[in-house]
Write a structure and sequence with these properties.
Largest sheet: 5 strands, mixed
Radius of gyration: 29 Å
Shape: elongated
Number of domains: 2
Strand order of the largest sheet: 7-8-3-2-9
């Protein structure tokens, strides 16, 4: 007869319940004995040691309600939902401080359900209870584990912040020295570093695709591609536009937004809450986004006669591809059908985020 082994068990909790994930597949002969402070499970299935008999016993930290608790067997695991008799966060799952080696923490499921029912998103314990999260992480791994994604995002945001600070510093020093006369040489002074950090920003479209961030792919794409179009096709491609004061104002607006946005992202990654920075992040766009939109529109409108004259980026017939493109007309279409709807979409998204981030959460707590 085969030996009885212990499966891996992953646990998580909210204020009102504990969830267990038993890592067994093809489960047969499942036997569950659930009481207020104990859980006994035996089963035959495919676990870490192959097909075998598995069992485990748990002495729970606090009482649960066996009648309200439940479990279900699915293809890849057995899931338990244990309803706590008294709402509250448990410092550990077991009554004894020693944690069995087969008991793991399921950090992906650590969500708080203390928000209103009409909230679409659940809050993360990492943000709500950072001390407990760190304690559990240390208990599980012996140290606070920092994954590659977090380290990468901190470095990326820091580099972008330094880049935009550099652009603003150069513009400020030149303006304090030469006054308004410095505006005509703004692109010559900071154009190359600005192009570099703008190219780096295209990584922000990839971050949500890879699951690094939870931001909207559409909003990131609209913001980044819109700036890229203005910077590379409207300013960099037309030398006469580079000397216009509107380029100075556009760079000033873009950089002012980013020197707030990137530090805010860094503090969120490091679990540091600075109320003023949060307010600034979700308020500074209100005056600056419309001003940036006006500057971008002015640059495009003033470029139309330039591109009519030079025919740059215009493709005329006949050609081997039998394809024609009139670039000034494309600029007009971009203004009408992409820039206007794009700025509306971005500002609507920012308004929703502002409402969510700056309102005071209504937390419901129940205790026995």
């Amino acid at each position: 007869m085969s030996n009885t082994l212990t499966p891996f068990v992953y646990w998580a909790q909210t204020e009102g319940q504990v969830t267990l994930k038993v890592d067994l597949t093809d489960v047969k002969d499942l036997n569950v004995n659930l009481k207020e402070t104990t859980l006994q499970v035996t089963a035959y299935g495919q676990g870490a040691r192959g097909l075998n008999n598995y069992s485990f016993d748990l002495n729970l930290h606090s009482p649960i309600d066996p009648n309200e608790s439940n479990y279900k067997v699915i293809d890849r695991q057995v899931d338990f939902v244990l309803i706590k008799k008294c709402n509250g966060w448990w410092p550990r799952l077991t009554s004894q401080p020693q944690k069995p080696s087969w008991l793991k923490i399921d950090f992906d499921k650590w969500k708080s359900e203390d928000m209103d029912d009409n909230e679409e998103e659940k809050r993360d314990i990492l943000n709500d209870y950072p001390d407990m999260y760190d304690k559990l992480h240390k208990e599980e791994f012996g140290y606070r584990k920092e994954d590659f994604t977090k380290v990468y995002l901190v470095i990326y945001n820091l580099c972008q912040f330094v880049g935009f600070i550099y652009v603003l510093a150069v513009m400020a020093v030149r303006y304090s020295r030469d006054g308004p006369d410095s505006m005509k040489d703004t692109y010559e002074a900071v154009g190359h570093p600005f192009k570099f950090i703008q190219l780096l920003q295209f990584l922000e479209v990839m971050h949500p695709l890879f699951g690094y961030t939870k931001s909207s792919v559409l909003v990131s794409l609209l913001q980044t591609s819109g700036r890229g179009f203005v910077l590379f096709f409207m300013v960099d491609a037309e030398p006469r536009m580079q000397t216009k004061p509107v380029v100075f104002y556009l760079f000033l607006i873009w950089s002012s937004v980013e020197i707030v946005r990137y530090p805010y992202y860094i503090t969120q990654l490091l679990n540091i809450e600075i109320s003023f920075l949060t307010w600034l992040r979700y308020s500074i766009w209100i005056p600056l986004y419309p001003l940036g939109f006006v500057c971008e529109s002015i640059i495009m409108l003033r470029n139309i006669p330039y591109f009519e004259e030079t025919q740059k980026f215009t493709i005329s017939l006949p050609n081997s591809y039998n394809f024609a493109l009139h670039f000034p007309s494309l600029i007009r279409l971009y203004l009408l059908f992409l820039l206007l709807p794009g700025i509306y979409t971005v500002m609507l998204r920012m308004h929703e985020l502002r409402q969510k981030k700056l309102r005071k959460p209504k937390i419901k707590k129940k205790y026995c």
